[in-house]
Amino acid sequence: MDKYIAEFLGTGFLFCAVVGSGIMAENLSTGDQALILLINTIATFFALYFLITAFNSFSNHFNPIVSFVIYLDQKISLTTLIIFIFLQISGAIAGVLAANYMFGIENFEFSQKDRSGLNILVAEAIASFGLVFFILISKKEKIAIVVASYIGSAYWFTSSTSFANPAGTMGRMFSDSFAGISPENVMFFCIAEIIGGILAFVLYKFCFKTN
């Protein structure tokens, strides 16, 4: 059971950190969007690093597209994949709702933050491609710093601010805050993320996989 609990808790704490730090930054700043994003980036970087490191001996995907490509690489079973995805989505929603509650905002209020546009969807596909690709080609002991560093930088070089995680995307629609996303955008974001992840796996399998 440890790997399943790890996926739920890890994903939950990750998106509690993503959304909570966004709310805190909004509360403390004077509306400077760059400062809010910087604070959000730093918190996400540290959350990713410590969660991936701490759960390394159990399971530390925290992301359905990561679990999916690991399944495609025949390293987990289909049953495990399905359970992981369910727990990741549940954990992300629980983490977002916990952040909402801690900061005294409406628990089940849908986000009004519009993230539409083909350019943003392409950015999200690129963000997900990079995340999955660099995970696949990195040594296991380096995964934490690779993922944290990549997402930290992709927050700034992608117009989507690099969600790169369908579970997190679904969870973040429940927070009408800086890190939120309108429910109307969720399906398109998830499709872009899946496409990016699959393309990364194809490149890895045919050009970079060594064994």
Question: Would you write up a description of this structure?
Answer:
The protein is mainly alpha-helical and 211 residues long. It has one domain (2-208): Glycerol uptake facilitator protein (Up-down Bundle). The chain has helices at 2-28, 33-54, 64-72, 78-102, 118-137, 143-157, 166-172, 183-208. α4 (78-102) runs parallel beside α7. The longest helix has 27 residues, at 2-28. The chain is globular.
Structural descriptors:
211 residues, globular, single chain, Glycerol uptake facilitator protein, 8 helices, 72% helix, mainly alpha
Brief account:
The chain has about 210 residues and is mainly α. The chain has 8 helices and no strands.
**Helical segment tally?**
8
* Main sheet record: none
Q: According to CATH, what is the class?
A: Mainly Alpha
Total beta strands: 0
Total discrete domains = 1
Order of helices and strands: HHHHHHHH
Cα separation of the termini? 29 Å
CATH topology: Glycerol uptake facilitator protein
Helix/strand structural class: mainly alpha
Helix content: over 70%
